[in-house]
Structure formats: structure tokens, C-alpha cells
Amino acid sequence: MILLRSLAAVVGVASKVGAAITKSPEPCAITYWFPFGDSYTTTGFDPNDTLPSVGNPLGNPAFPGETGGGGENFVGFDTTVYNRSLILTYDYAVGGAVIDPTLVSPITLSLPDGVDEFLVGAGKKPATAPWTSENALFSVWIGINDIGNTFYLGGDRAAFSDTLLDAYFVQVQRLVEAGGRNFLFINVPPTYRAPLIIDFFPDQLDVAKTVIEGFNSKLAARVKLFKAKNRGAKTWIWDAYTSFNTILDAPQRYGFVDDSSFGEPGDFWGNSYHPASAAHQIFAKQISELLAGTPWF
């Protein structure tokens, strides 16, 4: 079955959806953000179309882009609302993406494809994107489809998570070789609480939970090894897993109707597998707090 497109301490969850931020962007500071991932991150950016610029910080398509849950996602919010500087965002995430197409079949492109697109484009630091190791942030939020499309197949899941993460950090290392030094990693959220998974796998939700938690634990360990291997690299982990659970355990506290409705105003889920824009605004606020004091947020 193919699903729909789709540890540092957890940052406190915002108590209100849409809470205003008090920081003001620094008008002369320009920084760059290069997100990689799947439908939880994508804005539908095409690197061969209109590029990010002053006044149009996400380039194409028209703001807020084409997102998994509809409306503005965390990338859009952090680029335009919770930013400390002017951020020009080249979003290489693609809906349906996986870590390695030889391990899990992607719906469209995969993480290596996104890295390839970056390396032949903005990665060359053209006049349109003169980023440096100091003013560029790289983020990776992937693994959702790799687990969602395989958790029910059985086998040695711990070993498979290791295999996935081996491939994951091959791609991250390519970004280091291109000059990346600032990395935000995002772990896999509890997608077993998504209506789609509940509907299709009601008897295997505990299996999905165990697989996701195992992957996330290994990801946190790999981030530590990555930082130790690459002197000068700065890393952050936003704990999406804990954040989602905190909100879904008390949805009314955060302005949502319940933990399972989707597609209507007041729902946490924008559709049966993706958080709504209102949820992404909470995520964006948390990420900005995690990276507080950096050139970006």
C-alpha cells in the first residue's frame, strides 16, 4: 500500500494558535534556508522556476505554496512570520519523498533527488543565492513515508531503521561537503494517530508506535555522531513526536476540536494524514524558539 503524499529537549508548545511574535526582522540581514523532506515540509517549490527574492522569499509557486495539509505550513510561517532576518527559502522537499528509493519505493522523488537538485543549483552559490556556511540553515524532516509504507511488513525493524539512517546521513554529508554547517533535524511524528493510519491499520497501531519510537531514538544518536564527525557543525533536533502527542493529548487546550477530525476549521488534521495550517503555526513557533538567537529566528 502506498500512503498519501505526505534528542534535544522538546520546545514548549504554544498555548494559542496564531500567537503573535514580538521579534522584528532585521532589515539588512539576509539568510538562507534549504529544507529537505516530504509532504510535511513541501511548498511545491520548483528550482527551475521563479527563485526566492526580496518580496518573494519562497519563490514559486504563489504563497503559501502547495502544501500537504493545505494552507501555510511551518516553512511558510518561519520564513515570513517567526523570522529574525529576511529568509530566502529554497524548499527542496517533495510530497511522497523517501530517504532512499532503493529501500522504499517513493511516490515521486526522494531525498537524494532533492540533494541533487540543490547541488546543481543553489548549492553552487550562484549570484542569485550567495549563501555561506555561516548564514545558511539546512533542515531535514523525512522518514514519515519510509515508516508509513513499511511498518506493517514485519522483519527486523531496528536493523531496517539503521539501514535507512545510513542512507539518510550519506545525503546529509553531501550537504556538508557543499558547505553546510547548520542543521535542523526533525524526527518522525506519531503518524499512527493520523486518521488514515487508524482507518487502515486499527490492529497495528502499537506496531507503528514502536517502529517510530525506535527510529527516532536512533536518529537522535546519529545526530550526535554526525556532529562529532563534522567539526564546526551545529545541530538542533525539533522533537515533532513529542510535540504532536502533547497537542493531540489535549487538543482543546490548543484550539482544536479533537484529536481525529480533519478537513474543517478547528481540526488539527488538514486531511487524513497531514496536519492543518493552524497546527503548522504551532510547529513553526516551536522551531523559532528552538533556534532563538541564531541568524534566522
UniProtKB/TrEMBL annotation:
CDD domains: fatty_acyltransferase_like. InterPro entries: GDSL, GDSL_Est/Lipase, SGNH_hydro_sf. Pfam families: Lipase_GDSL. It comes from the Eukaryota. One of its GO terms (molecular function) is hydrolase activity, acting on ester bonds. The keyword Signal applies. Gene3D superfamilies: SGNH hydrolase (3.40.50.1110). Keywords: Hydrolase, Signal. Residues 1-19 form the signal peptide. This is Fungal cellulose binding domain-containing protein. It comes from Mycena albidolilacea.
